[in-house]
Amino acid sequence: MDTQAFISLKKVSKSFPGVKALIDVDMEIRKGEIHALIGENGAGKSTLIKILSGVYQPDAGSEIYIDNEKIDGITPLISLKKGISIIYQDFSLFPNLTVAENIGIGYAIEQGTFHVSWKEMRELARSALDRLGIDISIDVRLDELSVAKQQLVAIARAIIYNARLIIMDEPTSSLSKHEVENLFEIMRKLKDDGISILFISHKLDELFAVSDRFTILRDGRYIGTFDEDELDNDAIVSMMVGRKIEYQIHEKRKCIKPILRVENLCKKGNFRDISFVLNRGEVLGITGLVGAGRTEVLEALFGLSIPDSGKIFLEDKEISITSPGKAIKYGISLVPENRLLEGIILKKTVTDNLLISNVSTNSNSVGLFSKEKIQQFVKKWIAKIDIRPTMPDIKAINLSGGNQQKVVIAKWLATNPKILLVDEPTNGIDIGSKSNTHQLFRDLAENGISIIMVSSELPEILAVCDRILVMKRGRITAELEGANVTQSDIMNKAILDVSTQVEA
Question: What is the phi/psi pair of residue 166, to 5°?
Fold first, then answer.
């Protein structure tokens, strides 16, 4: 690893009305290193990368140096020409275009030509994929690829711009363990080629697996930069949040009053013979490998997809959930896995997003909004879920990913559901906020709300859930409960063969 700095930041600050997102941040990213950027949601990570990409202009007095050259008035085009590329959580790709078009279209636009050379575009795409050692057809449409392969396309797109720094924002959030390992191999290959990577993640084990150095932010301030061997989990968390935080293992409760019963639910290609009982005031976990059918079961319970067969009973009465509207009327709400596509409207404010599912509770008898009610309602949920910054009128697109997730959780909790379905609820949320979210779920359960939680994080499942269902290839392979259940117990059930697989 080169010790020469590619980018240096000196006294970089950024203010928004009513809040200082960054305060005098000093930081350098060396050539050919994997550099982890860590902090709680709202610590300033998203603001920092938007400054590096030219989306935001820093406050007066801030200094940015690239290859020892001071850059005044950085713009997206200047950032790109200096070799800075960002791969956001949503990849910012075009699902209806081919792999070749996704990789080459930006390059064609940058050239400023009115004629597109499809031959050149295909050659660029093939060259980029070959350089990364990726075997993907350049003619396949992007929406036909898995999330992991779409991410590799986004990386290939970055390197055709002669990228010298690739910023990866929560790149492993939707990947299986095997796909994460493949991504890390690509990252190491890029590092060996002299490309720097700024790696943003809340998963500390993954950061330690691949990062050379760590920079920690807290409340918009620079805490420090450390070599990988100078830190451990406890030290990082303490510097991130100013206190020690661990997963709190909640006492397992034996809930015996059924509220929801599912019998032999089947949907071809998704899941088969799904049967279970959810009790009142219980947190029921569903886990297993990515692609096991967990999300699809939640979608069926919320009316987003209609099962081919099977029965659903709510409080001993058979019900038919054919739409999300019907599910909400039955008192069932869903916090979806993909917040950007299904959970939040990015161009609307926090207030607007919170009100979408809560119109009736904030209007009078003739349907007119009560300004006072709205203000109290929004203030309550911003505080309860710890949404940062505490600005009701800020647009969701300007929030960090974790705070966007908090808005989604708050929106559905505010409907006062009997049953709350949550799919990867702490995805992209820092460890401090995770702890708060876990406590929130337990408090809700103590007050009689029943929760079904899908999560890939086994420590989370073990910490929060009273019972655990394990899925494999669309089937439930085990039901586990009790204080002695371990991660090994879950994984053994998640990887064992099942005699009957889901029909294609």
Answer: -110, 120
